[in-house]
Design brief:
161 residues, alpha/beta, 2,3-Dihydroxybiphenyl 1,2-Dioxygenase, domain 1, 2 domains, four-stranded mixed beta sheet, 27% strand
Length: 161
């Protein structure tokens, strides 16, 4: 067993922790699946031998998935925010999440098929809405408010006026 990270994001799943971890590892860079612990005995939401926990990393963030049953659900109060360099990277992550049973939301937010929220945020958007020119920042912000997936060309055009 490896030494656990000092701080780990712990995510509660109904029963799909391993599937989710493997999806993230296949989708995002610097992501991987580590140790999969199978239950040594029966537990309230599973049986001996079922996957109990999965250690994984999502874009360098250590995580632990627990198959705890249906008692708790995700909300938008927690999300992973992924900064993207360009439209191609934005499209790739957005399409991977939404195209794998996920759901679009507003302003660069989406949910994966397990209900976990993601913010796919181009660096160009962050730069535009923090422009030192308040009018340019507002134009970019107003454009963002009309979008689901962020369109960098539209954000940059709004910023320019």
């Amino acid at each position: 067993m490896t030494t656990p990270a000092k701080n780990t994001v712990c995510l509660w799943y109904d029963r799909d922790a391993e599937d989710e971890a493997r999806f993230y590892a296949a989708t995002f860079p610097n992501s991987s699946v580590g140790e999969v612990l199978r239950a040594p005995g029966d537990f309230p939401s599973g049986k001996k031998g079922d996957v109990l926990t999965v250690e994984f990393t999502v874009i360098d963030i250590p995580c632990l998935g627990i198959n705890g049953g249906p008692a708790f659900k995700y909300s938008e109060a927690f999300s992973f925010q992924v900064a993207t360099a360009d439209q191609a990277e934005t499209d790739r992550y957005w399409n991977a999440i939404v195209g794998n049973g996920g759901q679009e939301s507003a302003c660069g937010w989406c949910k994966d098929k397990w209900g976990l929220s993601w913010q796919i945020t181009p660096l160009a958007l962050t730069e535009a809405i923090t422009d030192p020119d308040p009018a340019a920042a507002k134009r970019a912000f107003d454009a963002m408010m009309t979008m689901r997936k962020i369109d960098i060309t539209t954000i940059e055009a709004a910023r320019s006026g």
